[in-house]
Amino acid sequence: MLRKLYDWTLSLAGRPYALWALAAISFAESSFFPMPPDLLLIPMVLAQRQRAWLIAGVATITSVLGGLVGYAIGAYLFDSVGQWVIGLYGLQSKADEFHTFFEHYGLWVILAKGLTPIPFKIVTITSGAMHFDLVTFIVASTITRGARFFLVAALLKRYGPPIQSFIEKRLTLVFLVFLALVIAGFAAIKYF
Predict the structure, then answer these.
(1) What is the pLDDT of residues 72-86, one digit of tens each?
(2) What pTM did the predictor assign?
(3) Contact (Cβ atoms closer than 8 angstroms) between residue 36 and residue 91
């Protein structure tokens, strides 16, 4: 089953509408959606290594734009939508601690968490709720999300065939490691 899903995702990655799908996922992930864009970005770059920079650029731009929606949720709808999104991740009990930590280290939180598997939507919503400087938020989000997506694209562009071979030979292991990283990201934000 995992092999069929991998093959389907790889075939989807080569289709003309794949960039639109990546844009939608990347946008939504920064404000409310739980699926990381890497699940589509990686096979897209593997399928079209010559377009690696375009793919990373689309993921970066739409992630930052989605982050602005997350920021708006935090700034204007925190008591309703923001609390609901945080509740989906079971983070209500940690929200006050995170707010206090964010007051002191907001820029560093945005830069660090944008690179990790920790859900970026938590950072974007908190940034809005704390009324963090919008220009600094946009710059920091662009730097951190761009670094993440362009690093993945650069590695896949340069080492694509060996990485693809490794993934295909050890598909279950790669899937479990990726799943563990996503779960670790959620756990890290919950127990931060």
Answers:
(1) 998 998 888 877 877
(2) 0.80
(3) no
